[in-house]
Design brief:
Length: about 240
């Protein structure tokens, strides 16, 4: 579904990604792990057209994304929930969802709103409220719901549980499972590596802009380097 090959991204003179390769199959959940600054957000931003690659290829359902604008990439079926949510805090919940639907034909918007409210009932209750008055968890739900308004088949999620209490984090992870059960593929950047590897079938590990490990989540979870660096476990113990 998504194929990234030899992707290089440069910010000024800084090389943020160097030869990154990854793929996501239809309906899969794939996670991207790595320390701060390793290039996870940049990878998502390159896929959704927010930064232009200096080299390499990004193909989605056979189309070359590097030739498309960010809006055209959304229209092609990719949704992006950026780190930090970036919702419009002075707009109401409903207005935020309407912004997410600005490319959707007007006659389809009511059904999309209903689908969003079915997934996140709290957003229906709060639809007339300013988004800035929502809790962190509710704002994250709004950011995800907004990205779903265009009915993407691939959702890019950047640190959805960042700053959330454990209960809300579990709720968000449950939501990701439900979205995926509806057939949406997910490329997940998540600081909680343990949760990410539980949710995802496969993963990639980035270090200073390069993929240093890739494989099935079950295999990554027992890799001594990954256990030590990302799971906070000693590298020689067997899986709990
Ligand atoms: P984090 O978990 O902290 O968000 P990350 O793995 O998502 O980290 P990126 O945000 O993709 O990493 O950053 C990769 C590298 O590119 C870092 O060295 C970062 O400082 C640099 N970088 C990111 N955005 C920019 C920018 N707009 N201009 C210049 N350098 C940038």
């Amino acid at each position: 579904m998504l194929e990234v090959e030899n992707l290089t991204v440069v910010y000024g003179r800084r090389r943020a990604l160097e030869g990154v390769a990854l793929n996501v199959g239809p309906g899969e959940i794939v996670t991207l792990l790595g320390a701060n600054g390793s290039g996870k957000s940049t990878t998502l931003r390159a896929i959704s057209g927010l930064v232009r690659p200096a080299g390499g290829a990004i193909r989605y359902e056979g189309r070359d994304l590097a030739r498309l604008t960010a809006d055209a990439i959304v229209a092609a079926g990719i949704g992006h929930v950026p780190e930090g949510r970036e919702i419009f805090t002075d707009f109401t919940v409903l207005e935020n969802l309407q912004v997410g639907a600005h490319t959707v034909p007007a006659r389809d918007v009511p059904a999309r709103l209903e689908a969003a409210y079915a997934l996140f009932p709290v957003l229906r209750e709060r639809r007339r409220q300013r988004a800035g008055t929502l809790s962190g968890g509710e704002q994250q739900m709004l950011a995800i719901a907004r990205a779903l308004m265009t009915r993407p088949r691939l959702l890019l999620l950047d640190e959805p549980s960042l700053g959330l209490a454990p209960r809300l984090m579990r709720e968000i992870l449950g939501v990701i499972r439900r979205i995926n059960a509806d057939g949406v593929a997910v490329l997940l950047v998540e600081q909680n590596a343990r949760a990410a590897l539980t949710l995802a079938a496969r993963g990639y590990v980035l270090e200073t802009g390069r993929v240093v490990a890739a494989g099935r989540s079950a295999d990554l979870a027992v890799d001594p380097r990954i256990r030590a660096a990302y799971l906070g476990l000693s590298s020689d113990r067997v899986i709990p």
